[in-house]
Amino acid sequence: MVYLQVLANGLTLGALYACLAVGFSLVWGVLNVINMLHGSMIILGGYLTYFAWLHWQVHPLVALLPVSALVFLLGWVLQAGLVNRLVHRPVLTTLTVTFGLDLVLYNAMNVLFDATPRRITLDLGTLALGDVVVAWDRILAFALALALTGLLYLVLRSSRAGRAIVAVRMDRDAAALMGIRIHRVYAMTFAIGAGLAGACGALMAMVFPVTTNLSGLLLGKAFVVCVIGGLGTVPGALLGGLVLGLVESFAGHWFGPQNAVLVGFLLMLGLLMTRPTGLLGRRGYE
Amino acid sequence: MKRSIVPFALFAAALAALPLAGDNHLVQQATFVCMYCALALSWNIIGGYAGYPSFATAAFVGLGSYAGALLQNAGVPMVLAWVLATLVTGLFAALLGYGLLRMKGHYFAVGSIAIVEVLRLVVSSWSGLTGGGEGLNLPILAGGPAFAGMVFLYAMLAVMVLAFAMTVLVDRGRLGFGLQCIQQNEDAADMVGVDVVRTKTAGFALSALFCGTVGAISASWVAYIAPTDAFNILTTLKVPVMVLLGGPGTVLGPVLGATSFVVIEQVVWARFLDYNQAALGIVVVLLVFFLPGGLLGRLRQRRPARTPQAGPGGAA
């Protein structure tokens, strides 16, 4: 059954997409800011993990947390220092600023690390279930991507900071009246988005070759996932990621891999015009 | 209004006189200035007047360049190919606008970026017609580089003047008024009798029209097009930045912004070869922080402040 294999590929890819987009979706939903830096932050996470593995033989699973923390810090600094000052301006302004920052980060990574595709090879072997063959490193990345997405869900549901983020998402002004310091919540949200991007980059480097040239493509995936699943919700991003992974996998099987991305974008445009709140069609969390 | 037309006419005349200096590099730079002015003026219609953050500029430029290239390679004379490419692009935008303009804010921004990607992917994979990733070659204009340089400068200059004339007409007419109403409050505009759908679609189509011409002319100019260059995501982001730099929703702002941007970019390219993108990024960030209303907004803000100081007591 070739379809089972396509399904397995789609699911492993989809979990990565969900993890890639969940932070982006959170920032968009809570701050109403499109973070154009997201793609480059993922690549940064991937590169840091790769170099830790190459030079100091740090296992990517060990590097995952420190790398994520570093990108988290970068996100905090950018939001608290720059983006917070503009956060209530029109769409175009915040988008332009994050685009400008993205040019800086992208250029810095090209100069510091150059754009050679890099991949960590763990050689964990493959798992064969009947005719379906999946590499173990993919399964590992799949499980971790789901775990990270689930972790964010738990943080938002049960931690104090998480409840504050959800409150700001629901009603900024009411949250401010309840004594929530919104700008601090914004910085926290942006930093969480960045940290997740970094962690996702670490996972990606275990599965795909990572290069700076991918950052635009990854950003595009984040857009598509957000539109499919709906903005700013963890279940939405999970659903959107899995749907996109499956759609690309099956479209690649039927129409050839070069058209898989095209089908994803067309799906997004169709949904944007008909169901702009996403498949789940809900606003807010829970 | 005369305050805008006179400076623009002087500016266009200065650009038109440049070939007299006999410097091919200068002529090339002037052509870029005209090209970006035309794109910025076009974007200003939908982005500046209507306040819809469109990132579809590169889609229209790419579509125009492929339409022009395919027509020229089919034997259509160059200038006619440019005109037809313009019409094709305008028609495409009018149809597209019907679906795309239902969205607002971020959704519209994302949808319009997606159009660029979709067209690029279609052109890349439809290799039977478009040559795919290998691109298309166009006939090179006979007469030597100096002559060709002059022809393309005047062609781009003409497009810039047309785009400016369009902006003046829109600014004075019902359409501009309707677009500004939509920017301030779309529901209220609908309520008081502005045909919102029609106005937005017309604005969107006009904002695409001359992007198609620019694409077709630049395809003939470079004599080669490929998907990644024609549907360049950087173009799509640079043009709105130019308008923001100059002053959105004004007649002269886009011209001022595009010209300064091209000059800044030249300086940055020359000084920081390895870091040119980072330098550009820093310029963009500084701009948003320190020039929120654009250069023109700055100039206009100062003007009334000076008048009272002219009196005898105004020694502040």
What does this protein structure show overall?
The complex is a heterodimer of chains A (286) and B (316). Helices cover 74% and strands 3% of the residues of chain A. With 286 residues, chain A is mostly helical. Chain A has one domain: ABC transporter involved in vitamin B12 uptake, BtuC. The mean pLDDT of chain A is 86. Chain B has 316 residues and is mostly helical. Chain B has one domain. Chain B is 78% helix and 1% strand. Chain B has helices spanning 2-17, 24-49, 57-73, 78-100, 105-125, 127-130, 144-172, 174-184, 186-191, 196-222, 227-230, 233-246, 253-271, 276-290, 294-309, and strands at residues 136-137, 224-225. The model of chain B is unreliable at 303-316 (pLDDT under 50). Chain A binds chain B through residues 28, 32, 34, 82, 85-86, 89-93, 95-97, 99-104, 106-108, 111, 216, 220, 223-224, 227, 258-259, 261-262, 265-266, 268-269, 272-273, 276, and chain B through 47, 51, 53, 99-100, 102-103, 105-107, 109-111, 113-115, 117-118, 121-122, 124-125, 233, 237, 240-241, 244, 274-278, 280-285, 288-289, 292.
SSE layout and pairing:
The complex is a heterodimer of chains A (about 290) and B (about 325).
Chain A (H helix, E strand, L loop, with lengths): L1 H30 L6 H19 L3 H22 L9 H23 L12 E4 L2 E4 H23 L1 H11 L1 H6 L4 H26 L7 H15 L4 H22 L4 H15 L12
Antiparallel strand pairs in A: 1-2
Chain B lengths: L1 H16 L6 H26 L7 H17 L4 H23 L4 H21 L1 H4 L5 E2 L6 H29 L1 H11 L1 H6 L4 H27 L1 E2 L1 H4 L2 H14 L6 H19 L4 H15 L3 H16 L7
Antiparallel strand pairs in B: 1-2
